[in-house]
Structures are given as C-alpha cells and as structure tokens.
Amino acid sequence: MHYVDGFVLPVPRAHIEAYRRLTQDAGKVWMEYGALQYWECVGDDVPMGKRTSFPQAVQLQDDETVVFSWIVYASREERDRINAAVMKDPRIAGMDPASMPFDAKRMFWGGFQTLVEMDGGSAL
C-alpha cells in the first residue's frame, strides 16, 4: 500500500496561474526525488457546508478558491526520505514564504496510509 500527503489551502483566484507555476516547479522536485504522483486540483464544485466544508476549513474569502492537493509515495519511509531531501533542495529551501501566492496560515495537511487503492476500476 502507498502513503499519501494531502493538502487543502485557499488561493486567491487572481493568483491561480502563479500558484500553478509554483507548484508545477515544486512537483518536478518531488518527482525527481521519488514521489510517484503529484496532484494539484483547483476547486470547481466546492459548496459551503452547514457544519463543515472545505471553504469553512480554510476560512475562504470571496475572492479565493480552494485547492486540494496530494502527493503519493511508495511508503511512509519513502515519504520521509523524499520530504527531507526536498526541504534541503535549494529550489524549495530558497522559497520565501512571504512571496507565496496563497495564505499558508490557512493551509492544512497530513500524512495518510492508504486503506483502499483502485486504478482503472480494479483493486491494486
């Protein structure tokens, strides 16, 4: 079974292209170090909930949208190794948090062991 890091964050609609460029470059770094998949998805049908929802979780503002992202690794051990290498890589380590095209204070993330995996309609 694989291991997955998941992320949810608010991105101003006006900064989606800058976010795409940033994460496309960052994704290449993760993949170079061994990540199996790198996904960045922009909200298209993300309704406000009555009790909880993606918009509520990130305190979404009127000019923002929700981004849902994940990175797939072969195992937790591989994830830990890859993330340690990525964080030391000057392409990532040199990024200024103040210049990010999103509010990292409202971002949340976590690491997950897979429970069920399917691809193309069949169990892996």
UniProtKB/TrEMBL annotation:
Any single Pfam family the record assigns to this protein: DUF1428
Source species: Comamonas terrae
Q: Matching Gene3D superfamilies, A to Z?
A: 3.30.70.100
Which InterPro entries does the record cross-reference, listed alphabetically? Answer: Dimeric_a/b-barrel (IPR011008), DUF1428 (IPR009874)
* Designated name of the protein: DUF1428 domain-containing protein
